[in-house]
């Protein structure tokens, strides 16, 4: 089991750039909860832009605090958008150095251009000289069709380790109608390939991808009446996998 702690780098209320202490505190709350529950936690630097110094400071604190804890997976760049792969690669190499000063072995996830869809680019030019690196692919099933699965298959065939750190069944905006068939096609493919995956998101925002209704308690133990359509589908997928 794995959860993802998405820490906003510069957008929204209480982001790291405006309030680093608060952002670190919230990251630690999720990490500590995951450790207590004996599950994995992806610590996600949630940004579409390169901000090397802030990212370096953030991951220095997290890696120093939790070095040696096997639960931690570091995600150094959520979704690069217009950055080139050489730019993303150079940035990732710097953050990897920061993490490895404290934590030499835990898995590090590296993003790729165009919102983690250009997975073919790191497959052609991966980071070398490091261990336990994986590369992220993101999909929203109502937008991203078979072409993205085919592209990912080609990257895997070249030996690229792939982790799906964000996914869902609606459009890439996170809104609009869910396409259950397209989502099931992705779930079947994920199972066939044996890939790790995380869905977006455990939230009660007014958007399709948020799994919870506003009435859902923050303490959990949600009933079906607390879940929106995406939450019910995800719960069904997870229960099937745990049979």
UniProtKB/TrEMBL annotation:
It comes from the Bacteria. Keywords: Glycosidase, Hydrolase. Residues 2-205 form the Glycoside hydrolase family domain. Gene3D superfamilies: Glycosidases (3.20.20.80). SUPFAM superfamilies: (Trans)glycosidases. One of its GO terms (molecular function) is hydrolase activity, hydrolyzing O-glycosyl compounds. The keyword Hydrolase applies. Belongs to the glycosyl hydrolase 5 (cellulase A) family. This is Endoglucanase.
């Amino acid at each position: 089991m794995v959860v993802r702690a998405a820490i906003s780098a510069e957008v929204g209320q209480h982001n790291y750039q405006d309030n680093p202490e608060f952002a670190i505190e919230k990251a630690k709350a999720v990490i500590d909860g995951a450790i207590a529950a004996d599950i994995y936690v992806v610590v996600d630097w949630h940004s579409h832009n390169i901000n090397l110094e802030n990212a370096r400071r953030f991951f220095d604190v997290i890696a120093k605090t939790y070095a040696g804890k096997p639960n931690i997976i570091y995600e150094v760049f959520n979704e690069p958008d217009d950055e080139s792969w050489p730019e993303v690669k150079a940035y990732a190499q710097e953050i990897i150095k920061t993490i490895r000063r404290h934590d030499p072995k835990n898995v590090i996830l590296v993003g790729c251009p165009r919102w983690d869809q250009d997975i073919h680019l790191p497959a052609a030019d991966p980071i070398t000289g490091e261990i336990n690196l994986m590369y992220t692919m993101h999909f929203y099933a109502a937008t991203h069709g078979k072409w993205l699965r085919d592209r990912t298959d080609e990257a895997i065939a070249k030996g690229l380790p792939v982790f799906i750190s964000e996914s869902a069944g609606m459009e890439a905006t996170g809104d609009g109608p869910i396409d259950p068939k397209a989502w099931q096609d992705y779930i079947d493919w994920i199972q066939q390939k044996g890939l790790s995956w995380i869905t977006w998101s455990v939230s009660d925002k007014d958007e399709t991808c948020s799994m919870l209704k506003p009435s859902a308690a923050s303490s959990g133990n949600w009933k079906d009446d607390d879940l929106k359509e995406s939450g019910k589908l995800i719960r069904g997928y997870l229960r099937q996998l745990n049979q």
